[in-house]
């Protein structure tokens, strides 16, 4: 039986009327990890998870935005602390790589916030879902090693070969989006990364190109990702489904 888990989606960013279809359209979809961007986003993901048991909420603050005030951050951490038992992970958290390409930013407050999330994730006993690409990934690896973080998931990762080797050696997980079907660099990364530490995601509602051009991003797109990983790894499609499902279920402590 084909079973898939969307390891990274922003369900709260879809229109409410589409939630049911996204969650229920594909019978092979067993769970969705819905990540948060702000306090309001956390609260909306909490609401969605109470409507659909297969939706597992992660709470955090997306780094590709300007930072809120210290009072607002205190409110966010207090809310997560109060609701941490129901969350599957801390996320999405990380560093503002793309924002820093557009604006002149001080990285220090973003580093302080990320380190606070790392410290709290250990206190809460939850894995981390990370937005950390290119040079930022090296900085994040430094923090993860500093705090001996056991479980880290780098979503839609892109980075240098030396960073990839470091992440592999540390047993960090990565996930690939549907762009693996048409992007050679992502195909090369998936070929190189151990299958035991791979997951699939949509990052929906982020739109994709290639065969997905002008389509709403939905979890069923991951089937083409799985088939592409099977081709790259020279493993049967059935085995690849099994590996990816078990990897994700194990990482997120989901019952199988």
UniProtKB/TrEMBL annotation:
InterPro entries: DNase_TatD-rel_CS, Metal_Hydrolase, TatD-like. Keywords: Hydrolase, Metal-binding. A divalent metal cation 1 binds at residues 8, 10, 92, 203. GO terms for molecular function: hydrolase activity, acting on ester bonds; metal ion binding. A divalent metal cation 2 binds at residues 131, 155. It holds the Pfam family TatD_DNase. Gene3D superfamilies: Metal-dependent hydrolases. Transmembrane segments: none annotated. CDD domains: TatD_DNAse (cd01310). Belongs to the metallo-dependent hydrolases superfamily. TatD-type hydrolase family. This is TatD family hydrolase.
């Amino acid at each position: 039986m084909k079973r898939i888990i969307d390891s990274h989606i922003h369900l709260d960013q879809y229109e409410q009327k589409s939630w049911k279809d996204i969650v229920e359209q594909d019978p092979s979809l067993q769970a969705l990890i819905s990540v948060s961007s702000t306090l309001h986003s956390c609260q909306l993901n909490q609401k969605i998870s109470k409507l659909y048991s297969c939706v597992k909420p992660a709470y955090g603050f997306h780094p590709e935005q300007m930072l809120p005030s210290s009072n607002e951050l205190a409110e966010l951490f207090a809310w997560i602390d109060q609701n941490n038992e129901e969350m599957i992970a801390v996320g999405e958290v990380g560093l503002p790589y793309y924002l820093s390409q557009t604006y002149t930013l001080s990285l220090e407050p973003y580093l302080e916030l990320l380190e606070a999330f790392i410290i709290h994730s250990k206190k809460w006993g939850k894995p981390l879902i990370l937005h950390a690409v290119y040079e930022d990934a090296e900085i994040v690896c430094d923090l993860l090693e500093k705090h001996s973080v056991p479980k880290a998931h780098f979503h839609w990762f892109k980075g240098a070969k030396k960073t990839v080797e470091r992440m592999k050696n540390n047993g960090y997980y990565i996930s690939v989006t549907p762009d693996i079907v048409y992007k050679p660099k992502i195909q090369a990364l998936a070929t190189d990364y151990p299958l035991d530490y791979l997951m699939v995601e949509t990052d929906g509602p982020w739109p994709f190109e290639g065969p997905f051009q002008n389509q709403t991003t939905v979890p069923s797109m991951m089937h083409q990702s799985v088939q592409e990983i099977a081709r790259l790894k020279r493993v049967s499609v059935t085995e690849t489904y099994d590996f990816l499902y078990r990897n994700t279920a194990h990482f997120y402590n989901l019952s199988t």
